[in-house]
């Protein structure tokens, strides 16, 4: 049996969480408040890239703030999804892998014109 690993650290411990790690592993990063967490998430996406961001909140102002941050960071946002979440779900039946708008996802499966930077797709998803 393999179980997920959750590692807790402070926001100042960037050496621990600022590099890609294959899992199942997740970090719980202690921040001063929700706004600081959203700002840190945006900085990570813009600096290192991300295929998707997951948010779990019932507060509309938090959802709206993270939506704005992910639009600026050009990364897909999944809100309150349960069960298995596919980080590149939007790429099914298309040449998109991520949004094409941040350092982690700027490639194409089949269309060489994609690298001309003409498409950027960001989305947010809820369960219906």
Automatic annotation (TrEMBL):
Query: Which Gene3D superfamilies does the annotation name?
Result: Aldehyde Dehydrogenase, Chain A, domain 2
Alphabetical list of InterPro entries matching this protein: Ald_DH/histidinol_DH, Ald_DH_C
GO molecular function list: oxidoreductase activity, acting on the aldehyde or oxo group of donors, NAD or NADP as acceptor
Protein name, per record? Uncharacterized protein
Upper lineage:
unclassified sequences, metagenomes, ecological metagenomes
């Amino acid at each position: 049996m393999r179980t997920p690993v959750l590692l807790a650290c402070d926001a100042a411990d960037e050496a621990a969480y600022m590099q890609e790690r294959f899992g199942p592993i997740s970090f719980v990063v202690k921040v001063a408040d929700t706004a600081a967490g959203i700002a840190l998430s945006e900085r990570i996406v813009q600096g290192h890239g991300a295929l998707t961001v997951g948010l779990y909140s019932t507060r509309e102002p938090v959802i709206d703030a993270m939506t704005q941050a992910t639009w600026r960071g050009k990364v897909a946002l999944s809100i309150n999804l349960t069960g298995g979440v596919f980080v590149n779900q939007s790429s099914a039946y298309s040449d998109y892998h991520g949004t094409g708008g941040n350092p982690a996802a700027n490639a194409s499966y089949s269309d060489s014109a994609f690298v001309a930077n003409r498409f950027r797709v960001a989305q947010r998803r809820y369960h219906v």
